[in-house]
Specification:
The protein has about 350 residues and is an alpha/beta fold. It has helices at about 10-25, 40-50, 65-70, 90-95, 95-115, 150-170, 200-210, 240-255, 275-285, 310-315, 325-345, and strands spanning about 5, 25-30, 55-60, 80, 120-125, 175-180, 180-185, 215-220, 230-235, 235, 260-265, 270-275, 290-295. The chain is globular and about 55 Å long. The structure holds UDP-4-deoxy-4-formamido-beta-L-arabinopyranose (WQD).
């Protein structure tokens, strides 16, 4: 059992990882500034895992004094899982400084805290965005990284570059996890993806259109050089992503690393087209969906999916949930949100 600090603990992947860590027997101290999440997620997490091994506080990582105060007043931390970051490609293009400020200052303060409070292990939330438009598929962790295509992608690429320099001057060991497209919701349907405002991501846009919050889904581009003309992605269930974080942390705790910075792809290895993802949703939900094929979206990668051999062989991680599981849980979560809002409105 270890004591783990989880930053962004009320966010999409953070909340699911908090649940997985506690269910695996660890203690969690979660922090969040609610800039891209909601305080009531804490109550939902307590419903799932209780408070015996879970505490949560509002902390803004851009203010080092808040972070240092928390760490000064709590028992020693064995590891940090750092999720807290903004993650919209589209928004980052319009407002790059918001992304550099939040994502990079937040990371720098976490690294400063690891040194000041002798925290031996860190898991960093990276992204397949660092691969850009890869020339070869599937991508491995050795695939050369091109110039980032968005400020968001640049913050993840810079984050990994910062870690390369950091580990040379620190005793903290780091794992960087490159997520592909996390989707879906916890089987309890009490936590899930909660985009604030109009979603830019495909799956919440599908479910919000199907539930009637959005008028129509546009599939961005039907003329790509792929099997059906739409983009290809590696969709992966958020619960499989959460499990990988617990396994990455235990990989560090058990000192199974061979270098001070280890990088892993977290994808299923299956490339799925946007049209195939829509068909999966229609099949499992049984509802109609108003959608059309529209123009391409600037900055979109044509196709990307993972070679996940390293995560399988070294972390012992196996993604278990299918695309249908992802769409089914995402839809049931959207329905639960409507029921919650309907009750609030009454
Ligand atoms: C997926 C596909 C769109 C919305 C994101 C993050 C990135 C990484 C992976 C890790 C694309 C199409 C979308 C819509 C559509 N996450 N689409 N209509 O851009 O692959 O990357 O997930 O942390 O950091 O940015 O995700 O869901 O926006 O798009 O046709 O209304 O769905 O064109 O092909 P993306 P996405």
């Amino acid at each position: 059992m270890a004591r783990i600090l989880v930053t962004g603990g009320c966010g999409f992947i953070g909340s699911h990882t908090v649940v997985d860590l506690v269910e695996a027997g660890h203690e969690v101290i979660s922090v969040d500034n609610y800039s891209n999440s909601y305080p009531w997620i804490e109550d939902r997490i307590v419903e799932l895992i209780g408070r015996e091994r879970y505490e949560h506080q509002e902390v803004d990582l851009r203010d080092y004094h808040q972070l240092a105060a928390l760490l000064t007043n709590c028992k020693a931390i064995d590891g940090v899982i750092h999720f807290a970051a903004f993650k919209s490609v589209a928004e980052s293009v319009k407002n790059p400084l918001k992304y550099f400020d939040n994502n990079l200052i937040g990371l720098n303060n976490i690294l400063r805290a690891c040194d000041e409070f002798a925290i031996p292990y860190l898991v960093f939330s990276s992204s397949c965005t660092v691969y850009g438009n890869p020339p070869e598929l599937p991508v491995t962790e050795q695939t050369p990284l091109p110039e980032p295509e968005s400020p968001y992608g640049r913050t993840k690429r810079m984050g990994e570059d910062i870690l390369k320099d950091y580990v040379k001057a620190s005793s903290t060991h780091v794992v960087s996890l490159r997520y592909f497209n996390p989707v879906g919701a916890h089987p309890s349907i009490r936590i899930g993806e909660l985009p604030i405002g109009v979603p830019s991501y495909l799956v919440p846009y599908i479910t919000q259109t199907a539930i009637g919050l959005r008028e129509k889904l546009t599939i961005f581009g039907g003329d790509y050089p792929t099997r059906d003309g739409s983009c290809i992605r590696d969709f992966i269930h958020v619960c499989d992503i959460a499990a990988a974080h617990t396994q990455a942390l235990e990989f560090l705790l058990n000192k199974r690393f061979t270098s001070q910075l280890e990088i892993f792809n977290l994808g299923t290895g299956n490339g799925v087209t946007v049209k195939e993802a829509v068909q999966s949703f229609l099949k499992v939900s049984g509802v109609n969906l108003n959608y059309e094929i529209g123009p391409r979206r600037d900055g979109d990668v044509v196709a990307i999916y993972a070679d996940n051999t390293r995560a399988r062989e070294i972390l012992g991680w196996t993604p278990r949930l299918t695309l249908d599981d992802m769409m089914d849980s995402a839809w049931r979560w959207e329905v639960s949100l409507k029921e919650m809002n309907d009750q609030l409105i009454r």
